[in-house]
Design brief:
286 residues, alpha/beta, Rossmann fold, six-stranded parallel β-sheet, binds nicotinamide-adenine-dinucleotide
Amino acid sequence: MAAQILAGKEIAEKIKQIVKKDLEQLKTRGIVPKLVAVQVGENPSSLVYLGAQKKSCAAIGIEHEVKNLDGNVSESDLIQFIKNLNEDRTVTGIILQMPLPPSMDVRKVQSTISPEKDVEGVNPANLGWIVYGRPVLAPCTALAVKELIDSTGVNLYGKEVVMVGHSDIVGKPVALLLVDKFATVSICHIGTSDSGMLETHVSRAEILVVAVGKAHLIKGSWVKKDAIVVDVGINKLGDKIVGDVEFEVAKENASWITPVPGGVGPVTTAILLRNTVLAAKMQFLN
Ligand code: NAD
């Protein structure tokens, strides 16, 4: 029997309904969250993301502003700009759009965002809270993966989880979030592929999460019977957007699977809104 589809849009809608209620409560106290996205130079793909951010903020009632800085801005001026936003009490959330110019130290700049305004969860303090098992403003995509898995009703205790990809904002935090629920988590990456072990690991997974960025890297035939598959990857293949997993074959083996597009993406956006409201609460209600 083919897998059930993990419909990201429905889960995102449920999250947004809760966020809306929280927002209304904040507004009765005169608090209106405002998200500022800082963009250095011009980047066409970032423009698409910014447009989507603006639209989803407007739809729910969060203020959104884009601050464009010249592509030649120095790292120290960018850091000062962020520090000014940290001090500005009308700004409750800060997003630093990627990519930054290659000369900049991305982690150094991200670490200057105030942890309480870091709605993307990229500051080391917020990443550290995940290590402590107390995620607060964690990276939106990692939280989205957890929401999608939880929505299946699966008990993570003792489950074999394979996380393919070990980025700071997806792979590593997802692995930590799941290991804290006592799943047995393996993290695979380019080294696993190069040693020829990727299929071996993937085929053991009762829960498989993939965040690589290579179209159809994971063959559908590798997917274990009744596995839950969460595909984070976004890739262009011809005129189509596809994930990292060979969906059509994988869905014949899996019990649940996310589509691409329409799986992780909408939930990530909803979590960004949730994090933005949470950040405002932390600044004004604590
Ligand atoms: P990244 O680009 O920082 O890292 C890629 C990871 O894949 C690394 O761990 C690398 O070792 C691993 N890798 C590369 N080639 C591999 C191979 N052949 N076999 C096994 N592992 C391999 O990762 P990222 O920033 O987490 O992004 C991954 C994908 O997820 C991208 O397609 C990105 O667009 C997408 N993404 C989607 C969302 C969303 O909301 N849907 C959010 C973030 C990222």
